[in-house]
Structure formats: C-alpha cells, structure tokens
Automatic annotation (TrEMBL):
Family under the similarity heading: Belongs to the glycosyl hydrolase 3 family.
Class in the EC hierarchy, top level: hydrolase
SUPFAM superfamilies to which the protein is assigned, alphabetical: (Trans)glycosidases, Beta-D-glucan exohydrolase, C-terminal domain, CalX-like, Galactose-binding domain-like
Keyword match Calcium: yes
InterPro entries per UniProt: CalX-like_sf (IPR038081), Calx_beta (IPR003644), CBM11 (IPR005087), Cellulose_Degrad_GH3 (IPR051915), Galactose-bd-like_sf (IPR008979), GH (IPR017853), Glyco_hydro_3_AS (IPR019800), Glyco_hydro_3_C (IPR002772)
E.C. no: 3.2.1.21
GO molecular function: beta-glucosidase activity; cellulase activity
BP GO annotations: cell communication; cellulose catabolic process
Protein name: beta-glucosidase
Domain Glycoside hydrolase family 3 C-terminal stretches: 724-925
Pfam families per the UniProt record, alphabetical: Calx-beta (PF03160), CBM_11 (PF03425), Glyco_hydro_3 (PF00933), Glyco_hydro_3_C (PF01915)
Keyword line: Calcium, Glycosidase, Hydrolase, Repeat, Signal
Amino acid sequence: MRRTALLVSAALLTGLLPFAAASTASGADDPAPAPVPVDNFEGEVPFASPPADGIFTWGGDSDDAPTLELAARDDAPQGDKVLSGTYEISGYGGFTHDFAFAEPAHDWSASKGIRFWWDGRNNGKKVNFELKDGGANGEASELWTTSFTDDFTGWKQLEIPFTDFTYRTDYQPVGGIDQVLGLTEMWGYALTLPVGVKDRFAMDGVELYGKADQALRARVVTDAAVYPVKEGRSAAVKVTVATTGSAPIEEPVTVAYETAGGTGESGKDYTPVKGELTFPAGTASGASRTVTVGTLRDKAGENAETVPLKLTVTGAKAPAENPQVVIDAHGLPYLDAKAPVKKRVADLLSRMSLAEKAGQMTQAERGALTAPGDIAAYDLGSLLSGGGSTPTPNTAEGWAKMIDGFQLRAQATRFQIPLIYGVDAVHGHNNLTGATIMPHNIGIGASRDPQVAYDAGKVTAAEVRATGIPWDFAPCLCVARDERWGRTYESFGEDPALVESMETVIQGLQGAASGKDLKRNDKVLATAKHFVGDGGTEFGSSTTGSYTIDQGVTKVTRQELEAVQLAPYQDAVDRGVGTFMPSYSSLDILGDSEGPVKMHANAAMINGVLKDRMGFDGFVISDWQAIDQIPGDYASDVRTSINAGLDMIMVPYAYKDFHATLLDEVRAGRVSEKRIDDAVSRILTQKFKLGLFEKPYADTGGASAIGSAEHRAVAREAAAESQVLLKNAGGVLPLKKSQKVYVAGSNADDIGNQTGGWTITWQGSSGKITDGTTILEGMRKAGGSDSVTYSKDASAPTGGHDVGVVVVGETPYAEGIGDVGNGHDLALSAADKAAVDTVCGAMKCAVLVVSGRPQLIGDQLGDIDALVASWLPGTEGDGVADVLYGKRAFTGQLPVTWPKSEAQLPINVGDASYDPQFPYGWGLTTLTKVPEGGRATLKALAAAAALAERTGSDELGRAIVDKARLLVQRKVGEGITAAVAKPFADADHLLLTGRYGRAVAKLTEAYA
C-alpha cells in the first residue's frame, strides 16, 4: 500500500478508536469480524458484458453510459489503482459488477453492511447504490436500493448498513421474488450516476463490514400495497415477517394495525378493524398472518374510496408504505360497459378535477418512477418502456406481472382510470427476449406484399398484448428520401405509394378500422409516426448532438409535402389508427416565410391538417422528451405543444414537473380548459375502446404463442419475401444441395446483426441476443451441415468448394446514432471487403448484404456473381436460406434506390436526374418463367394492362406489370443505364398507384 493511502487509513482508524475501545471493553470475546473484500480494483475483475462475470456500463442511450478505467493513483485508499470514470448523462446511466453466474452466489448474511471509498466532488448530487439479491443471476435478481449524496471533497469511506436498502418495486415485481433482502444469494451491485452534470468519479475498496445485527435484520412486508375490493366484500391483507439471511427471528415482533384515514367513511363504507399481530421469537422467516377488512354495501353509485391500514411495527423494520384497501368505484354511468363510448367519456370527464385530467395527459418511463405510489399521487395516465427498458427477468411473465403491478396502483385513484402502457414494438415484440422478430420495415417494403405487412402486424399485436401491453408505438409511415438517415430501415420505402400499400399493418395490429377489435387479447392500439416529414430531413441540418440528418429540417414546397410526406397519413386515418406521434424534425415549407417549425410545435399541421382536415379522432402522443426541443423555457414548451394539438406528452423523467407546469399554464389561462377536455376525451376514448376499464390486467392467454413455430413461420415467410436479388450472373442462385458451399462474412452467423437496432435494447447489439436462426444456421439446415464450410474472415482454405456465400453489411444502430457522418458510412468494413475479395476471387460467389440501407459495393460488383439485398431479416434466418436454396423464389424488389456513390445522395424515384447502381423496383427472380419475346410481348401486355386498369382488376393489373418488369430486367441484364433506370423506377411507382397501362408503357421505354 502506498504511503498516502496508509495515512488516510491511519486517520480513519484514529477517528474510530473510541468506538473500537468501547467495543473491546463491552465484548472482548465477540470482536467485529475482519472486513470481507468485494472489489479491490487492482485488475482482478475484468471489464465485461452481461452475463459474463465483471464490471460493465449501461445507459439510456449510447451517450449515457459512463467511461471506466482502472487508474493508478498515488492517493488510492487501497492498493495502487482505483475504478475511475467520466460521465455526462441526460437519461440514466451507471455501472454494475455482476458476479459469475456459473459459480455459487455470494453469502453476505454474516455482515452488517457494505462500504467503499468514494472520491467526493462536492456536486450535491445523489448517487444510487443497488444490491442484486436472489434469482438466477445478476441480470435476473431483485434490486435493493439506497443512495448517498456527493457533498464532500476527496476520499471518504461510506458505510451503508443493509437495513438502509429498500426494494425497488418499480423495476422487477416478477417471478421468484420474495421482496426480502436475504443476502444469502448475492449477485453483485450497481451504481446509478447523477443526471444533468458533466463530471468524473473514482471509487475504491468495496468490502463487507461489521457483524449482522439480529435486532435489525427483521422486517415486515405485505403481499401488496393496494387491495381493490368490490363493495360489500372483504379484503385480506397478508402480513409477513422476514429476516435478512432467512434466519428465524430472535426477538418477538408485534404489528399493531388499525384502519384510519382515507376517503372511505368508517361504519358507512367499511367496518373498522384494530388489533395486534404477534410473531414470537423463533418464528421462521416468511411466516404470515392475515388482517381482514370488511366493506359495507349501499345503493348509491360512488367513486372509489380508500381505507388505509396503518401498521405500527415493534421489533422489526416496518413496510415502506402502509397498505390500503380500495373499495371499487361502482354504479356510475362511465362504468357501464354496455353504454356508448362517447357517453362513458362524457360522464367520466365531467367528474374529473383539473389535476386528474393533467395526469391523464402525462406519460412517464416506468424506470423513472421515484415511487410506485406516484402513479396514484399524480393520476398518471400512461407509462412506457423506452428501448431496452425491460423487467428482470425479461420474460413474458415478467412483463405481465410488472405491468399488472403498475395497473394495481392506478386502482387507488378516485375513478380507477387504468394506465395505457406503451412500447416500441417496431418489428415484432422486439424488447422481449425470445419473441418473434420480424424483418424491419424496409424488408417488408421490399416484399411488395400487403399480406406480409398485415401478418407481421398481426403476430406483433398478439405477442405484445399477451404480455399485458395494449399500445404499440408503430408503424413508422415515414418516406425515407436519404439513406444516410439512421432510421432508413424504419421506413417501408422511398415512394409514398409503397408506404401506403404496406399500411395493412395497421389492421394487423388493431383489427377493424372501427376499433371494435381493440378489446381482443391479440390486438393493440397502433401509432402512426412520425408526423410529418422525418424521412425528408436535409443532410447536415440536425442540431441534435452529433446527428447529421435525424431530427433535422425537412425543406419542401407545399406540393412536395402533400405528394410525398403527407400522403401516407391520410390512409392511416382512414384505417382508424388510434394514435399519432409527431416527428422530432422541423418542417420548413418553402415560400411561406415562416422558416423551420418543430413538428411538436406545429399547430397548423397537427390541429389544422391532421385533426381538422384529415379528421383524425384519436390522440396525439409526443416523442421521447421531444417538447424539450421546442424553443423557449419549459412552461413555453408545455403550452406550445399542448396548444399545437398534442394530447399526451412523453416526459420520461420529468412527469412531476410536467404535471405541475401544465396545471399552472391552465390556471393562468395560457392553455384553455376546452383544449384539456378535448385531449383527455381523446385519451379516454381509446382506453374505453381497448376494454381497459373492464380488464386492466394482462390477459396472458396468448403467451404460449410468443416465439411459437406458427409465429416464426410468418416471420420466415416475411424474411424470404424481403430478399431482393440484384444480380445473378450465370444463375449462381439458387444453390443446390449437392454443392459444397463456402460461407464467410461478419453477418453470416450473428443474430444481433441480422435483427438490427430496436432489438432487445434501443440500439441493438451484435451477438446472441435472443432466440432465432442465423443465416448460416438456416443454410446448414437447408443444404446439409456437411456441405457448408464456415469461416467468418475467410481464413480457412477455399479449395474444394463449388460456390461461396459471403454475408456482409452493417452492425446495429438506431435513430441518429446511425446517421452517416456520425461514426457511420455506407461502405463495407475492411474485413467484409477482404472476405468478398478472397471468396469471390477463388470461386463463383453470392454476396448477401445484411443492412438497414443500401451499401456502396460498386467497386467490387464486377467480381460478384450474385448480389442479394437481405436488409435486416429478423430472427428467422431460415427464410433467407429458403430463397438461397430454391425452396422459395426470389420475388423481392428494391424499396429504395441503390446508389452508385454517396455523392449521388439523395437519389429517389421521380428525380429528374437518375442514374443509380440499381433502380427503385429492381428485383430479379428465380424459379419463375420469364415471358418470351420483346416489343410484341410488351405491346400485348400494355393492352391487357390498360384493360385491367379500366375494369378495376387490380390483381390482374399487377400480375401483368410484373411480367413486363421481368421481361425488361432479363433484357437489360447488367447494363443498367440512366436511360433504363428512370422509366423502370417510374413504372414501379405507377404500378403502386394503379396506373397499369402507363406502367407497362414506361417499362417499354426502359426496354428500348
């Protein structure tokens, strides 16, 4: 130990001498045990990722995770090194040490508490410290939390008794949890660092200290915090005594109970109870007693009434809050399930206070609740899980129990208005491990099959609703006009007509346009996003962090706005979509002299166009913290967004501030009560349609189908139809089972890369992050494992193989994190390029590009025999193998233009100058007979197409145009010129708009 560290320890020892002497004098035969080291930070514990043993960081987004290093310091309190780091957190972030799950859990029950050295910065900020207790491992355990305030300078040893920790009910009220800090199965600890400050930290010498104090180890808990009960029935409150370490209690524990306070009237609404429970010394940990509270029936309709049960505990730690019995609201018109929704809404609205209405307009992130009781205290209308915000363990049961726990809290409000819980399930239930993950929207658009979009929505809805979630922030109806955008893959394509054709997904999610199916246990409320123009933002216009294009400015004429960006949203309204979400981006309509206007502040578009002109009668939800980007102070942000037509505001961490500010704005007359009533009416309408008042809790009847073979078959078909064959010289594809196939490339055997962003976490990640089949695994099943050789970097010998398949492309990203110029480009990595060169230089080869947008491959295209745009196919790599091996035909078509160079961007169908690598709509086929003949055949097809158009025979018209397309593609081959590309792409747009005769005419022009 260095000398300075010795001096610190000596000073500490001197300060403790009186206590040490007293301890020795009073109990020389029972000395305090020696400290038990947990972390010395000398390098004995690695930096790792869960579930591996080690220290790792985490955060709300990629900028929120702190940096970590083991830094040598002369003043290290223990040893030579300390754990040091920097942070600047906007959402949430911190670090964790998880112990190895393959080894026995740690037993801390003999110690009094945990202590560590902290290098104080005196910033006055709180740091949360959490313990991981019980469960299967560090990522599937209870969290117990406390905090300390950094209000000092320099090294200080902080001691935290285990009795200071409280259970985090907001985080994981799920299976196998007993809400007792047992300490016999510990899996690690975590620190959550302060938000809103740029700073550094240092920590050293984590250890257990002291001897467990039996008198402080016992605690009393109840099996719930809220007990809803129908009027006239009784509630049973289960009271349990438990101990740290699960040992029997050494001293008697008494629990005096009494019904007192609340809104219920004693003797009229309930029979008062008062008494005492006794748990004698020697009582086993986990022993329970029951207190029964009876309620009384009367004939009048009433609001819900609360009956708190006050618990006074002697000899143990009392529950964090007193439980309360809630007598259910009854006999009021809004509770009549047979009444028209409009009548129910009007009745409920007439009873609500302004504060209750403001609560309905507030949406918080579930992990940001400072206390579970805040749901009732602020009358919150909604909670959400941001990307990667999941229960532990991340299972269907875990989700359902977590959300039911939140819904239970809402039952403690006057009118028991249920929460509406929302999640970004943008390609399947993508936050849930083991769910069926669909191709991202760009792949669905490539399928050109509205039935695929519908089926994907149907499976997504069923899996989402089975976990207790009734609301999905999907689909994205943006029209992606520049593939440098990090959200390109969230779009169905660059053509508004293509996006409109895929909006069958809304019916897959919601069912009938009337909303009559929303009560079903396999349907969810859908969200059309992001209104309007997010796909058209100009490169370099973003002012968000290091983003280059996401959340930027869309500059369009009014005609362009109507024709391109607005077009898909009217169809969504007509299909009955329940909610809309505005875009982060700004809209600058050229010629109106207003300049860029943030969409969250754009009353002309939200109130004027969406609600008034289009007739949207659902509600508008803001995006994540998006009102904070509106110019002005917070009060201005709130009133501007609400007055612009937003009905519910996603304020993940600022729900208290938003609630208070909205009330102030209404009371000051800056937001009208009429606007508030309109917003709340819209929200309540959807809650009634969803049947949440009758069934607020999860219906898990469909949970067994999550990730089922039936659902995966739908995703497999979607993956197969999304594959676009761009080149196939010499008929390399389909592969034959008799061939020896050499597989290489970074994305051949990586489920995380092929599912992309928004998978399990917000940004997604490489590796085995969920259940599914990689492309390589699918190929081995389709072609036979003996016939497939795999070498990721193509370093294995290439001799003796008939054909190579190189699977290359991108690693996961989401939103502006993936913008080109923000650490990303459209070029293949050096390793992928090398793999292509090696394999394609040794044998005939097919290259599959697994990516969220086109990649620039022109410099290698001449060496590639077959090229496939695989997009992000989801968890079912079998679908990719199906077309590679000819079980299904290649039928996909490009949903976006494939450029030759970045200098061409943006490049889109309809551009005056259009000379891409592959045009919009391009897609070769296999296993399909291409029509013979040339101009004569095209002339006949043109006549037939014109007839189909006149008679409204859409299916026939599409089939005719498709035949003409295939004929032209065969003639063109690899000779795609600007003269060919422009009419070819225009033809696909005409096809999607039902102009079949003109589509064939354009194809004839391309043929010429």
